[in-house]
């Protein structure tokens, strides 16, 4: 392993509840009451699908550009007071850097959200060797494009990368990219993350050995 690629929402930050609350408020302003569970199938797929999929469920014709802009407006107002790094996230990134691994973000969120989140938790853009956003790829997770682009920008092969993901769609994308994947059960229960090579309850439980697979290899030896 030469590189670690981190998803952001639900891996580094506790932003999933905030974006859900912002989206629910946006729909409420349009006169439609939606539920948190309506968004679950679309977690990790990017805000276009996250909002659009729920709109389809309720038979709405949604102006996605305006809807996303309003959702981000509500979300960004929440970030300064409510957004936090998930326990152990900053420490794991620092350990990866000290160990000499290249580190990237590959998130289906738009750059405006990614930069706001990373700045708030103290891992700004210059912390990373690469950041790939929803705007950089045509196809979102579970398509592997976003992870393949991250590997390309890092200058490593997909087989040399480990992905840290919390979402079912994200794990599917990582495996389709030919990468090792460690799942963290912060957004979905562990039993739904079985496609990952290894599942931990949260990012604070993830070790460098989990990322490299060396512990498993040593046990097999």
Give short descriptive properties of this protein.
single chain, 221 residues, alpha/beta, six-stranded parallel beta sheet, globular
Helix content: 40-55%
Shape: globular
What is the oligomer described by this structure? single chain
Radius of gyration: 17 Å
Report the count of strand segments: 6
Low-pLDDT residue intervals, each spanning 5 or more residues = 216-221
Write the CATH fold name of the largest domain: Rossmann fold
- Give the spatial strand order of the biggest sheet: 3-2-1-4-5-6
CATH architecture of the largest domain: 3-Layer(aba) Sandwich
Order of helices and strands: EHHHHEHEHEHEEHH
- Give a quick account of the main beta sheet: strands, pairing sense, barrel closure: 6 strands, parallel
Name of the CATH homologous superfamily of the largest domain? HAD superfamily/HAD-like
Mean pLDDT: 94
Structural class by SSE content? alpha/beta
State the end-to-end distance. 18 Å
Q: How large a portion of the residues is in β-strands, by DSSP E?
A: 5-15%
CATH class assignment of the largest domain: Alpha Beta
Specify the number of helices.
9
Number of domains: 2
Description:
The protein is α/β, with parallel strands linked by helices and 221 residues long. It has two domains: 3-14 and 84-220, Rossmann fold, CATH 3.40.50; 15-82. Helices cover 44% and strands 11% of the residues. It has nine helices and six strands; from the N terminus they run E-H-H-H-H-E-H-E-H-E-H-E-E-H-H. The protein has helices at 15-29, 47-57, 64-82, 89-98, 111-121, 145-154, 168-176, 208-212, 214-220, and strands at residues 3-6, 102-106, 130-132, 161-165, 180-184, 198-200. Helix 5 (111-121) links the parallel strand 2 (102-106) and strand 3 (130-132). Helix 1 (15-29) packs across helix 3 and helix 3 (64-82) runs parallel beside helix 5 (111-121). The protein is globular. The two termini are 18 Å apart. 47% of the residues are buried. Mean pLDDT is 94; it is low at 216-221.
């Amino acid at each position: 392993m030469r590189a670690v690629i981190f998803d952001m929402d639900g891996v580094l930050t506790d932003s999933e509840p905030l974006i859900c609350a912002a989206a629910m408020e946006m729909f409420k302003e349009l006169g439609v009451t939606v539920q948190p569970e309506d968004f679950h199938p679309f977690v990790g797929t990017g805000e276009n699908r996250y909002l659009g999929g729920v709109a389809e469920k309720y038979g709405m014709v949604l102006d996605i550009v305006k809807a996303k802009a309003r959702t981000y407006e509500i979300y960004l107002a929440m970030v300064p007071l409510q957004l936090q790094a998930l326990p152990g996230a900053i420490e794991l990134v620092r350990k990866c850097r000290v160990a000499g691994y290249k580190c990237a973000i590959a998130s289906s969120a738009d750059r405006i959200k990614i930069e706001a989140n990373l700045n708030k938790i103290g891992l700004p853009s210059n912390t990373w060797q690469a950041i790939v956003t929803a705007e950089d790829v045509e196809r979102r997770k579970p398509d592997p494009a976003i992870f393949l682009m991250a590997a390309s920008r890092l200058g490593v092969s997909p087989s040399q990368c480990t992905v840290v993901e919390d979402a079912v769609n994200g794990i599917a994308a990582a495996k389709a990219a030919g990468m090792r994947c460690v799942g963290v059960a912060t957004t979905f229960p562990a039993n739904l993350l079985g496609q990952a090579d290894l599942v931990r309850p949260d990012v604070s439980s993830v070790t460098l050995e989990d990322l490299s697979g060396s512990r498993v290899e040593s046990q097999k030896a």
